[in-house]
């Protein structure tokens, strides 16, 4: 077999998500010509991550060592080269990064980034000394409640914060995380010359200098005025001193930020003309990769489960997030993120079906919808919405207001029932939260699913039933966040090459002019879905309320 066929111009996308770094190379028809990934837990065991993260000594503390991401970049590029991918044909690169995580560059790190030696690995140069914080907080961290309250209070309350930045303060958002570092490790903050998000960190590596933060991922910081698309001075002031210098001005996600630096030209044969495009957050990137219009509800079943929709005007939500749209830059998107997702499914799969997804599915499929009245809520980690922790199981006999309700039952009678209770409980949770914020679901709703668990048809069938809506997947075989990164690279280059005279095609029209978005209808809801799940939604709400109010 000869080397993979390449049509001259290729586009390279990366997704630096929670558990892996993935890369995809597309030809000019947006067809995949090479792909590679590096799984942190197994490919980089020296960093001792579980599910891509390290847990700290503080309750709800999660971090990673940023050098792990640098090392993963060395390996993923080598893996592409080992597939004989011709990187000299790449004309544009962009990335997708897990949202909210932050990287704190030292003076030495900035200097190193600008003078990379192509004879050495990246991680041999951008090592621990490049960062002033070597246990860098990621999105799973929830240790900043104090900083959230301080920031909200200083701007005039939760609602004011939400109106300005698209979200009330959430523990994992970068602003409260930066404030915690400023308060607890003031030397590190003083020495941090620049602060990147995970997304802008990827583009910075390729640029060989700091790439600005794009305003779509920047909307996940509680620092950006989402209407004006500039940092809110009010939020910066209440977060940490001289923060604007460390962040640099935000840019459109469609920006070509420069050419790839010499290191990549010499070491991997990239063309010196190859463009680096701003990277964005993995959820905005997934929306970019889904190529559907605003009528679709999109769901990512990655480490976190997320629900996303495009939005013409920003909403004033008390919970959930409104972000600047990644591709239609005068519009917005909604985002709901659920933390107890794949890792909880994985845990139950391990304990109930020996870690075998086929067996997990066999068990799930062998139980009826509604699970004989057995339900479970699994918030192993502090959930984001509602803010609640614990596990609660109810059988059909438990009455919501009864003394048994808070305790529930300790376990169910079979692995089959446990598994259905978990998956139904997760989907009921997602639907209830979305409905409480005003979403409406039914046959007219179409759901497009991506992310690691989207290969699981039994989970998708439960999703279709609980949401009472048909569920589709894309034909790609690669996740939307990753594809979205390469698509955005292609679109930003198209805008740049078109120049200012002509009216450009919109992102979706442009990408669909190169490729088709083949969607597969995977599951339709059963006819009795509404009848079964409407009463379960009411019971679920009470279970979640109990977990959110443990002292009542
Ligand atoms: N067949 C499957 N059924 C259910 N879940 C799966 C299956 N295969 C993979 N997953 C889940 O996908 C998750 C990883 O999803 P992915 O989107 O790659 O994560 P991330 O982008 O957050 O790193 C894993 O935690 C795993 O539990
Ligand atoms: O915190 C959020 C979104 O607000 C998470 O969705 C992260 O962006 C991580 O994404 P995955 O690795 O689960 O895709």
TrEMBL record:
Q: Which organism is it from?
A: Drosophila rhopaloa
Q: Which reaction does it catalyse?
A: D-xylulose + ATP = D-xylulose 5-phosphate + ADP + H(+)
Q: What is its EC number?
A: 2.7.1.17
Provide the protein name. Answer: Xylulose kinase
The record's Gene Ontology cellular component field reads: cytosol
Q: Where is the Carbohydrate kinase FGGY N-terminal domain?
A: 133-288
Q: Write the record's keywords in alphabetical order, separated by commas.
A: ATP-binding, Carbohydrate metabolism, Kinase, Nucleotide-binding, Transferase, Xylose metabolism
- Classification via Pfam families: FGGY_C, FGGY_N
**Domain Carbohydrate kinase FGGY C-terminal intervals:** 298-493
Superkingdom as given in the UniProt entry: Eukaryota
Any GO BP annotation: D-xylose metabolic process
Q: Name one GO molecular function term.
A: ATP binding
By sequence similarity, the record places it as follows: Belongs to the FGGY kinase family.
Database matches in SUPFAM superfamilies: Actin-like ATPase domain
As for what it does, the entry says: Phosphorylates D-xylulose to produce D-xylulose 5-phosphate, a molecule that may play an important role in the regulation of glucose metabolism and lipogenesis.
């Amino acid at each position: 077999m000869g080397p993979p066929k390449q049509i001259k111009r290729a586009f390279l996308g990366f997704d630096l998500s929670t558990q892996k770094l993935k890369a995809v190379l597309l030809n000019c028809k947006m067809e995949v010509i090479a792909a590679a990934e590096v799984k942190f837990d197994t490919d980089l065991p020296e960093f001792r991550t579980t599910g891509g993260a390290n847990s700290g000594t503080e309750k709800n503390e999660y971090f990673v060592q940023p050098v792990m991401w640098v090392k993963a970049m060395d390996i993923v590029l080598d893996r592409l080269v080992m597939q004989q991918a011709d990187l000299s044909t790449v004309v544009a690169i962009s990335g997708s990064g897990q949202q909210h995580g932050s990287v704190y560059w030292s003076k030495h790190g900035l200097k190193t980034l600008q003078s990379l030696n192509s004879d050495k690995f990246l991680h041999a140069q951008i090592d621990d000394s490049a960062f002033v914080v070597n246990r860098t907080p990621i999105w799973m961290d929830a240790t900043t409640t104090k900083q959230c309250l301080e920031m909200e209070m200083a701007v005039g309350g939760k609602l004011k914060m939400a109106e300005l930045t698209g979200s009330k303060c959430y523990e994992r958002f970068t602003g409260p995380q930066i404030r915690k570092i400023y308060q607890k490790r003031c030397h590190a903050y003083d020495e941090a010359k620049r602060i990147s998000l995970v997304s802008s960190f990827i583009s910075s590596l390729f640029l060989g200098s700091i790439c600005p933060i794009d305003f779509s991922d920047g909307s996940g910081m509680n620092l950006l005025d989402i209407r004006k698309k500039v940092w809110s001075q009010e939020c910066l002031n209440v977060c940490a001193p001289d923060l604007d210098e460390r962040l640099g001005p935000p840019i459109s996600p469609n920006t070509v930020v420069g050419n790839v630096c010499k290191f990549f030209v010499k070491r991997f044969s990239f063309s010196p003309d190859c463009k680096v495009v701003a990277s964005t957050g993995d959820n905005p990137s997934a929306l970019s990769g889904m190529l559907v219009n605003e009528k679709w509800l999109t769901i990512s079943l990655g480490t976190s489960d997320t629900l996303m929709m495009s939005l013409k005007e920003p909403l004033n939500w008390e919970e959930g997030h409104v972000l600047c749209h990644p591709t239609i830059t005068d519009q917005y998107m909604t985002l709901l993120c659920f933390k107890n997702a794949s890792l909880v499914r994985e845990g139950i799969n391990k304990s109930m079906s020996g870690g075998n997804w086929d067996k997990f599915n066999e068990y799930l499929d062998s139980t009826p919808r509604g699970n004989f009245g057995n339900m479970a809520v699994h918030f192993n980690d502090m959930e984001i919405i509602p803010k609640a922790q614990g596990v609660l199981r109810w059988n059909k006999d438990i009455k919501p207001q009864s003394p048994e309700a808070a305790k529930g039952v300790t376990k169910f009678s079979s692995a089959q029932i446990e598994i259905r209770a978990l998956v139904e409980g997760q989907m009921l949770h997602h639907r209830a939260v979305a409905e409480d914020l005003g979403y409406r679901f039914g046959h007219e709703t179409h759901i497009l699913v991506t992310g690691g668990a989207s290969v699981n048809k039994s989970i998708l069938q439960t999703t279709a039933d609980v949401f009472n809506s048909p569920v589709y997947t894309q034909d790609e075989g690669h996740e939307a966040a990753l594809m979205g990164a390469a698509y955005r690279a292609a679109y930003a280059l198209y805008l740049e090459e078109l120049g200012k005279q002509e009216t450009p095609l919109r992102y979706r029209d442009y990408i669909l002019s190169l490729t088709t978005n083949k969607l597969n209808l995977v599951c339709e809801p059963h006819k009795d879905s509404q009848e079964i799940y409407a009463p379960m939604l009411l019971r679920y709400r009470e279970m979640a309320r109990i977990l959110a109010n443990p002292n009542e």
